[in-house]
Structures are given as C-alpha cells and as structure tokens.
C-alpha cells in the first residue's frame, strides 16, 4: 500500500476563517479541506483528489459521529456532489464540501466539525478532539 498516513491537514471555510455564522435557514457555505497523503516513511504519496474526496467524511469534532451526507433540513449536513476540486495549494491537495445548518430550531445552534479520512490501507485518521490532528471549524446559527 502506498498511502498509509497524512502528513498535513487543514480545514477552513471559503471565507478563510475557522468560524462562520449562518444568518438564514437555507444558507450554506463551502468548506475547503487541504490534506497531504503520505507513505509509512513520511514521504508524500500521490493520490488523485477524487479519491481523497471519496475517502473523506465530515464528523462531529467531539464524538467523531459522521454528519449526514446530504442537505437535511433538521440536522447539520454536508454534500460532496458538485464538489469543486482545487487541485493543490503549494503542493497540498485541496477540495471543497458544502456545509448546511439545520433549520428547525431544535438542533444545537453551534457545531464544531472535524474530518475522518480513510487511507488506501484502510486506516482511519481523524481530525478531532482526540485524533491525530486537532484542526476544526465551527458553524453557529443566528437568525436575527
């Protein structure tokens, strides 16, 4: 197996920030993910961006539960469809998901998110409270 690890990982909203406030119920925002696949020896591995997208899942930063992969009215959710591949940022592959807040008023009004990436070897690597990486983004809902 060539791709067994990740040497770099970052997440940010398309605004360039780690935190974003949703101000309307049908609002969504792009979430840009940069990650560098690596081999066991620490050297970079070349992995197609489409494979990185397929093997990446947005999760709750605290308990690692996956977010639904569709736009759902009553839960925090995200979509991979219509994902724009950004290619590389100084050599690090990048891609974008769309994040949607819940609209029902019963779901928590803030959510801290991380990511799970499954390598070619089947190993899950987490960016979470107790993961290998501590990168996160936070969405907050404020309907004025």
Give a summary of the structure in a few sentences.
The chain has 144 residues and is mainly β.
Description:
- The protein has 144 residues and is mainly beta.
- It is built from one helix and ten strands; from the N terminus they run βββαβββββββ.
- The protein has one helix spanning 49-54; strands at 5-13, 19-22, 29-38, 56-60, 77-79, 85-89, 92-100, 110-118, 124-127, 137-141.
- Strands 1, 3, 5, 6 and 7 form a five-stranded antiparallel beta sheet that branches. Strands 2, 4, 8, 9 and 10 form a five-stranded mixed beta sheet that branches.
- A hairpin with a 2-residue loop joins strand 6 and strand 7.
- It is elongated.
- The termini are far apart.
- The relative contact order is 0.29.
- The mean pLDDT is 84.
Topology:
Blueprint: E1 5-13, E2 19-22, E3 29-38, H1 49-54, E4 56-60, E5 77-79, E6 85-89, E7 92-100, E8 110-118, E9 124-127, E10 137-141
The overall pLDDT average reads: 84
C-alpha Rg, in Å? 15 Å
Main sheet properties: 5 strands, antiparallel
Secondary structure: helix percent: under 10%
User: How many individual β-strands?
Assistant: 10
Q: Ranges with pLDDT <50 over ≥5 residues?
A: none
H/E element sequence: EEEHEEEEEEE
The structural class is: mainly beta
Number of helices: 1
- Terminal Cα separation, in Å? 51 Å
Morphology call: elongated
Strand content: 35-45%
Keyword list:
144 residues, mainly beta, five-stranded antiparallel sheet, five-stranded mixed sheet, 1 helix, elongated
């Amino acid at each position: 197996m060539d791709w067994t690890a990740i040497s770099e990982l970052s997440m940010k909203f398309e605004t360039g920030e780690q935190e974003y406030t949703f101000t309307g119920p049908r609002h969504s925002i792009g979430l840009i993910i940069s990650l560098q696949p690596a081999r066991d020896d620490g050297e970079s591995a070349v992995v197609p961006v489409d494979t990185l997208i397929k093997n990446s899942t947005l999760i709750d930063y605290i308990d690692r539960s996956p977010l639904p992969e569709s736009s759902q009215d009553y839960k925090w959710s995200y979509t991979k469809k219509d994902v724009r591949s950004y290619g590389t940022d100084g050599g690090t592959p990048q891609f974008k998901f769309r994040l949607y807040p819940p609209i029902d008023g019963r779901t928590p009004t803030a959510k801290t998110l991380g990511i799970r990436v499954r390598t070619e070897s089947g190993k899950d690597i987490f960016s979470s409270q107790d993961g290998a990486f501590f990168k996160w983004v936070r969405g907050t809902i404020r309907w004025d």
